[in-house]
Structure formats: structure tokens, C-alpha cells
Amino acid sequence: MRLVTLVRDRVNHLLFASVELLPTEMPAPPNPPGGGWWDNFGDDRLCVGRTALPLAEALDWYEALKDGRATIPGKAFAITASALGPEPDYHGFTVLAEPPPFSPSWHGRPRLHRLVPMAALAEPVQALRDSMVDVSAQGRARQWLRDHIHFDLLAYDDWLGAGVLIAPNPLLRSFGARIVNRSATSETLELGGTPRRGANVTSLRMAVEEVRAGAPAWRAEGAPNALGRFRAPARSQVAMVREELFCPVRGVLDREPPAFFFRSVSVSSSVVAEAKARHVDPPARAPDARARTVYVRPTPARRSEPPMTPLRALERLQDARAERQGALRPAEAPQVPPGVRLFEHNREETVNWICGLIACARSHVLFVDPYLDADDLQQFATATQYQGVAIRGLINPRPRRHKRVDPNGDSFGDLMLKKIAAFRDPAQEFGEIDIRVSRGRRLHDRFLQIDDVIWHAGHSFNKMGGGEISLMTLVAQPTELAQALAETFAEAEPFETWWPNRPPAIWSLRHEVGHQLRRLAKWI
């Protein structure tokens, strides 16, 4: 039995308690000196105890904890906890798909019965949890707990202030399935594991069920032999199965979620070309920034696809249905919540995060931004880390912007033409460089497309992460938007032909005064 408490003003507040039922073949661990460990952190004392108890006494203590009557084992000190409710609310267990964070590897997927806090935690416990990042003492307490109970308790809201009864499989040390007779037609599966010393496994029931394209197919069930093995014939090659181990007395002992079989391992060797260094100068808008070096790697070779079967064809059709968007999407399909990233007053973090996205590009990157300029290309497009990545831009410059110049007197368009020419240098290891100007369809929103992934941006890339709140949102179903962007890009005019024939800028006294005042402000 493990007990973690927080002591303040001589009151023992429950942080975590676990009662672990050991199989008969495993000896009970010795009690630590003094019954456990403790340390002081500010006004609080954290205590971790470990006690070996007979089965009946351990279950009685667990029931007392559920009823709010538990004390420190071997002492008369009461434990204060919020009202605890049993889950399941009957004498039984649940089996999680993944092992809990405090469970050692030999547990596998243990059965659990939990005592869940039904009310707010005590104020000292809440203070420890809520200030574990901001207050140094609480940060040290968090590390101390992690070192002594071997998981980050304060990061798990569902385990903080809770109790749990852990029951590993008492009959088998492990449980799984394997293919013992491989064939292109029918195969044989073997279920089982290693029986524990002195365990009688003949009363167990093992079941295996094939899953094809997300739906159950055939199912086989039977009792294992004395070695804990059960064999089931399959009607064809098996791709995915789920297994279950059941005991008529103890209930479900183990359940494996659907998983694929590893049928073969392919090892190949190839000569990997040395990554080439691309030296990137800082953009003109930030001349004091440091130069960057991006190492460009060859594009990895495409893997050969296995031969098509009806099962693989069905799975592809299911994937295509999931990608449907708009009116083509089934009305019953749930919407996928998009990912959102917020930036404010941290331009450097914003640039690094966007560059991290672009670094993953394998085929192309598309910038959709009316105000995209040469500095943006220098800052973001150079983050690609694979050879041959195409850089595309879809812009819509405003007429007044034709007159914008940099400190050297170069205009916006001249800088863009120079940057396009520089990127087309084979030494840069880029693919196609294609910047276009939208003519028929006007652009308002900003987008960043990286291969098949599209992010929507509220600000232009040159303002993202500045003084105003900026959002980038992952488009959950990008198929329809990608088609619209592709059509708009195909209709757009290449920048090299648009710039010499650009419409003249309309002179405006208001714009001219504003332009001169901005220049004066920069000079001052």
C-alpha cells in the first residue's frame, strides 16, 4: 500500500493512495526505514509511505478510505480527503486501454477500482497544484514527489486526491496474440501468456476477434491448455485483431485494443548524401538579427506500396469519406475541432514556430498573403529542410504599395524580383519558385499551405506576433479550401510579368502626407 499526504497545521490531506494486490508468486517488498519519506516545503510537509499488509487488512483500509475513516497505517492519525465515490460503483474492476502512469511495466494492463474525488480538493492541495509552476517551493515539491512515487502526480487531475485498488493479472504474467502458421490463405493464431507459478489457468477463457476496415469479422473463443495457450484458425490473412482474457470468477482480466500484426521487417542500406548548408541572412526589416544556417537534406525516397486488396481499397475509400468537406461531407459526420495557436508580443517565438512548420515540408509551401514581400520570403521560405521543395506565393499588392522603398531606395517589386532570382539559384536547393499576383479573385484572409496541411492566419506574416493578438488555426478538413487556392493560383499572373505592367499608383494627398510623416517618425 502506498500513501502520499500533505501535512499542514497537523492535518493530513490526501494526495494519492494506492492498494496493490501482489500475485502469490511475488514476495512483498520490505517496508522502508521509518515507514517512508518526508520533506518540508514552506508551510507544508509532504509524506510518502509504503506498507505491506495482509490482503484482508489492505482491503479493509481501502473500504475505510472510501467511507472517510482511513488513518495512517500503524498510527492513529486521521487522513482528511474530499468525499470519494467508487468507480465502478459496484464490486468490480475496469481495464484501461493504456496502463496508468504509476503502474510498473510488469503490471501490463492491470484491473483498477478507483475512488474519485466528488468535491473540491482541500485548499492546501489546490494551492500546491495551482502554483507548482510559478512558485519555486512548489516546483521543488513537484520534483520531490516525482522522484519518490515515480510519476508526476500534480499533473494528473484525475489521480490527485484519489485512491485506487490495483489488481494485476493473478494467473498470467502477460497476454497477447501471435501468428504461428503464416499463409497466403488461412492462418492460425495463438493466444496466451506465461502462467504464474502455481496458477491453474484451465478455467480461463480466451477470445480473439478480427477487425477489418473498422468492423468486427470472425470471432473465436476457447480455454487454454496447461501452458496457457489457445489456438484459433483464421479464414484468411489476418491484418488486425483484438483479444480478451476472461475468468468466470474474477471477470475480465485483460483486453487488448485492435492492433496490427508486424508481418515482416525490411532492412535496407543506401548512401545518404551529406546535408548541404544554406546560409540565410537576416531580413531587411530586422538587420540586427543573427544569420541562420539551414541544413538541406535530400527528399526521402517514396516507399513501394503493397499490392492492392479489397480490404486496402475499402480503407482508402473510408479515408476519402473522412476528407469530404462542405456539402459533400456526410451530415452525420462529427466536426473535428481545429488546432489554434495564439501569439502576442513575441515576434521571435512566432517566427520560430512558423519556421518549424515549414521545415517539415516535403513537396511545396504556399504563402497566401496580400502583403507578402521579399523579407517574408527571406524569413520563412528559407526554413525548408528538404531538397526540391517548391516555394509559391499568392499576393495581391495594393496600388500605393508600388511606391514603398527600403532604406537603399529599392522598391517593393524590385526587391521581390531580386529575391525570386536569388532563390532560383541551384545552390539554394529549392524547387520551383513561383510568386503570382491574384487578378480575378481578391484575397483577404491569409493562409499557409504545407504539402496537404493548411493553416489560416488572421494577420499578415510580417505582422504576426506583434503588438496585437494573432491567431493561426489549423484547417481541419482542407480539401475544399486547397482546391479553391489551387484554382486561384492557376488563374493568377506571374509576378515577373505583372510588375512591369502594374497599374499606376493613384496619388492622394492624405496618403502622401501619411507616408512622409512615417518617414519623419523613423528618422526622429
Descriptive overview:
With 524 residues, the protein is of the alpha+beta class. The protein has three domains: 2-167, no CATH class; 176-260, Immunoglobulin-like, CATH 2.60.40; 276-301 and 308-326 and 337-512, Endonuclease Chain A (Endonuclease, Chain A), CATH 3.30.870.10. Helices cover 21% and strands 29% of the residues. The protein contains ten helices and 26 strands. Strands 1, 2, 3, 4, 5, 6, 7, 8 and 9 form a nine-stranded mixed sheet that branches. The protein has an eight-stranded mixed sheet with strand order 19-25-24-23-20-21-22-26, sandwiched between helices. Helix 6 packs parallel to helix 7 (412-423). The protein is extended and about 90 Å long. The mean pLDDT is 86.
The average pLDDT value, as a whole number, equals 86
* Number of DSSP strand runs: 26
The largest β sheet comes out as: 9 strands, mixed
The coarse silhouette is: extended
CATH class of the largest domain: Alpha Beta
Structural class: alpha+beta
- Strand fraction band? 25-35%
Radius of gyration: 32 Å
Percentage of residues assigned to helices: 10-25%
CA distance, first residue to last residue: 72 Å
The CATH topology of the largest domain is given as Endonuclease, Chain A
Query: Tally the helices: what do you get?
Result: 10
Give the low-pLDDT segments.
Answer: none
Under the CATH scheme, the architecture of the largest domain is 2-Layer Sandwich
* Fourth CATH level, the homologous superfamily of the largest domain: Endonuclease Chain A
What kind of oligomer do you see?
A: single chain
Number of domains: 3
Protein name: VPA1262 family N-terminal domain-containing protein
